[in-house]
């Protein structure tokens, strides 16, 4: 053995002796499954190494993790994390102290509000915040800034399902029963949800249901990995969901699958729906939806004949200008057949973001106060004002939805904006418009982990906390409240998001309303503020969550369990206890195809990435699996367009244009192309998407806009206007 080998062996032995290993329980920051895991840190004077192992005691996923969860810690440990505040000077972002940053913030807010009123400063939140931070952000907007303008990126995620569930059931909790109920279903309809890629650890529930004999029906314009598992795959035309479901409802009624006693005793609106369905023809439904009549009939019979059934919807159904009506029609199907409240039956909106559920309950929505209370209800306002120690008249009124805030920025009604953990310059529809709006602001403050595309436009960037450093509760897609402890120190001078919000309030002279010593203290206040609301968390505590492995809401008493299954007594949350059916006529897409724009563009997620990609594009093992976005296209359509696999295509909508390489797949409708949503700059698919908003939920029409696709070599293509450069992860 040479001297070098001997030295290395000695060094390794020494390092091993000095290595300290710690194991901490944490929770994936990505999708709404919120899988728990252990983070192992091996630390010696010479190196630190991290590894992840599953938590087999997890009551929801029993030790399963997907590729994103296994790699989640990588972005949190990235050395390019923001470590100090950055302030724009002479056009460049430069590190400054927190004192300087906060002083600048105070002056900007004070000057702007003095000149243009309190509502001139807006707040934009995110669906990955903890419940405590979502709650605090709502309070910061209303009390710290005194503005009515607050909304969040969940508007682009769950708002249609939430509105539809509120209208139909009087409550919006993602799932009406726990995931463990799904394997008991006789038939499962999965509509517009690519669970295999977006919530991979949920798939075993569907597989178990199938093994138990359930018929699995997947409705999606693409043959996704989820659709490949289906017994029946309905390749619906984007925008055809209502027509498709009307066809199914027609068969349900005509062939006697309705539950008359349930309809009579527990619902209203059934007669109007039945009357309307008389005018529906299966042939018309087939034409409008693009699904053959025999498949519609087969689906109706499979669901109608099953004793029990679940319907799961997600963004494919919800991200439309008719998103609420699309979901209402699926709920019509559930209510007509009475498949709700009992074992093996229910409805689930498969939430996208990590805290998509809790994030929409406690006040970061334009019209909402904690506990799912309404800001325009005097009684609700009084209840929350009392907890906050202010007069009811001090609370502002309703604001506007996320995209509408950008319109107001362009009109100069909003002049300053604070964005927390969100990247709207990638995730909003028509990002060219959003970029113009952000440029109109007098000041933009972004709190984030990295210089995201949006942060790069900011005047002040504040370094916030990752999931490993941030303590708080999250509510998973079932409505189960979980607790994630902080397991790591923050880098540099970065601070927990809740601390940053408290400091911002303090410099604005509102510190006495934000003097919390820990996230648990914020949660205790949230419990009081939610007491008596629909999303009542008052009986939930950190101690209970840890002891019980999570607690379902509503939970109004410390000594009773939360309600894992809703509507067991067939009473719904409307004052008369009845669920609402409603006729839903089919309407055409807001932007129909024509000779100039002959294809429908639909958008969505890829397995290795999450939302705007700000974290996953910075994770080499995830980014390596999908380093660039492609345009997915049917080979026959590509041939007609003169395109081959891998060739660059020029994609144009009425709002913008871009170039992507084409990936050919027979698993997509010929009239539809698909683009993933995880990239910014010139690769941002939202350069093309349509900001037509649903009238009730204010959800944009991400899932359908008209485009044309041509080979890049075609003469006369205008040069693509340059947007902000893409940051690769
Ligand atoms: Fe679990 Fe979702 Fe994280 Fe995957 S991304 S590990 S399914 S929480």
- Backbone CA Rg: 25 Å
Instruction: Please give the share of residues in helix.
Output: 25-40%
Largest sheet: 7 strands, mixed
Mean pLDDT: 95
Defining traits:
single chain, 729 residues, alpha/beta, seven-stranded mixed β-sheet, six-stranded mixed β-sheet, 32% helix, disordered C terminus, binds iron/sulfur cluster
Task: Summarize the structure in short.
The chain is α/β, with parallel strands linked by helices and 729 residues long.
Question: What features would you describe in this structure?
Answer:
With about 725 residues, the protein is α/β, with parallel strands linked by helices. The chain contains 24 helices and 30 strands. The strands form 8 sheets. The chain has a 7-stranded mixed β-sheet with strand order 5-4-18-17-16-6-7, with helices on both faces. Strands 24-26-25-30-23-27 form a 6-stranded mixed β-sheet. Strands 10-9-8-12-13 form a 5-stranded parallel β-sheet. It is globular. Mean pLDDT is about 95; it is low at about 715-729. The site of iron/sulfur cluster has 13 residues, from helix 2. Iron/sulfur cluster (SF4) binds near residues 28, 34, 69, 199 and 200.
């Amino acid at each position: 053995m040479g001297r070098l080998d001997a030295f290395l062996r000695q060094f390794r032995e020494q390092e091993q002796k000095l290595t300290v290993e710690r194991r901490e329980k944490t929770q994936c920051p990505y999708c709404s499954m919120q899988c728990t895991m252990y983070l192992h840190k091996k630390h010696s004077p010479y190196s630190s190494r991290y590894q992840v192992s599953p938590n087999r005691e997890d009551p929801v996923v029993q030790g399963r993790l997907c590729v994103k969860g296994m790699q989640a810690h990588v972005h949190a440990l990235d050395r390019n994390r923001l470590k100090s505040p950055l302030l724009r000077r002479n056009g460049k972002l430069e590190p400054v102290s927190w004192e300087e940053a906060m002083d600048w913030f105070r002056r900007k807010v004070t000057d702007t509000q003095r000149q243009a009123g309190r509502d001139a400063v807006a707040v934009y939140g995110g669906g990955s915040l903890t419940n405590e931070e979502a709650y605090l952000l709502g309070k910061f907007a209303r009390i710290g800034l005194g503005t009515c303008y607050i909304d969040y990126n969940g508007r682009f995620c769950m708002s249609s399902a939430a509105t539809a569930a509120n209208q139909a059931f009087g409550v919006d909790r993602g799932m009406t029963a726990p995931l463990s109920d799904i394997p008991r279903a006789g038939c499962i309809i999965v509509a517009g949800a690519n669970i295999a890629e977006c919530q991979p650890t949920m798939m075993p529930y569907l597989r178990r249901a199938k093994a138990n004999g359930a018929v699995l029906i997947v409705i999606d314009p693409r043959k996704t990995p989820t659709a490949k598992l289906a017994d029946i795959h309905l390749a619906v035309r984007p925008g055809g969901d209502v027509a498709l479901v009307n066809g199914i409802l027609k068969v349900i009624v005509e062939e006697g699958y309705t539950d008359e006693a349930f309809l009579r005793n527990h619902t209203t609106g059934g007669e109007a729906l039945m009357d309307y369905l008389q005018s529906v023809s299966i042939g018309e439904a087939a034409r409008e939806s693009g699904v053959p009549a025999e498949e519609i009939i087969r689906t109706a019979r499979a669901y109608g004949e099953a004793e029990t059934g679940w319907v799961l919807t997600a963004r494919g159904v919800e991200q439309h200008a008719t998103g609420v009506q699309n979901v209402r029609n699926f709920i019509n199907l559930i209510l007509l057949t009475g498949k709700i409240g009992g074992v093996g039956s229910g409805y689930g909106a498969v939430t996208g973001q990590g805290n998509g559920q809790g994030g929409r309950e406690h006040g970061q929505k334009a019209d909402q106060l904690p506990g799912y209370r309404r800001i325009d209800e005097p009684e609700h306002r009084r209840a929350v004002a009392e907890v906050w120690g202010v007069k009811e008249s001090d609370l502002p009124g309703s604001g506007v939805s996320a995209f509408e805030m950008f319109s107001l920025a362009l009109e100069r009604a909003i002049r300053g904006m604070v964005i927390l953990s969100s990247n709207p310059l990638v995730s909003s529809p028509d990002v060219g418009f959003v970029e113009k709006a952000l440029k109109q602001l007098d000041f933009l403050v972004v709190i984030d982990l990295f210089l995201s595309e949006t942060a790069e436009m900011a005047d002040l960037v504040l370094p916030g906390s990752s999931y490993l450093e941030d303590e708080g509760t999250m509510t998973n897609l079932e409505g189960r409240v979980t607790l994630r402890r902080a397991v790591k120190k923050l880098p540099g001078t970065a601070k927990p998001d809740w601390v940053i919000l408290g400091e911002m309030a303090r410099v604005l002279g509102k510190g006495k309303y934000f003097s919390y010593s820990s996230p648990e203290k914020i949660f205790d206040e949230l419990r009081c503020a939610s007491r008596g609301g629909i999303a009542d968390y008052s009986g939930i505590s950190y101690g209970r969550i840890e002891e019980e492995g999570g607690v379902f809401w509503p939970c109004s008493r410390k000594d009773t369990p939360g309600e894992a299954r809703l509507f067991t007594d067939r009473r719904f949350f409307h004052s008369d206890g009845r669920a609402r059916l409603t006729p839903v006529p089919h309407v055409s897409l807001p932007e129909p195809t024509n000779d100039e724009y002959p294809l429908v563009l639909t958008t969505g997620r890829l397995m290795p990435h999450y939302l705007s990609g700000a974290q996953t594009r910075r994770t080499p093992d995830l980014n390596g699996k999908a380093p660039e976005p492609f345009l997915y296209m049917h080979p026959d359509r590509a041939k007609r367009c003169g395109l081959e696999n891998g060739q660059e295509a020029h994609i144009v909508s009425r709002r913008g244009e871009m170039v992507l390489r084409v990936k050919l797949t027979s698993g997509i409708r010929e009239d539809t192309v698909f683009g993933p949503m995880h990239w910014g700059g010139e690769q941002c698919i939202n350069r093309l998407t349509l900001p037509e908003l649903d009238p009730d939920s204010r959800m944009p029409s991400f899932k359908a806009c008209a485009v044309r696709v041509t080979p890049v070599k075609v003469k006369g293509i205008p040069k693509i206007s340059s947007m902000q450069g893409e940051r690769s992860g």
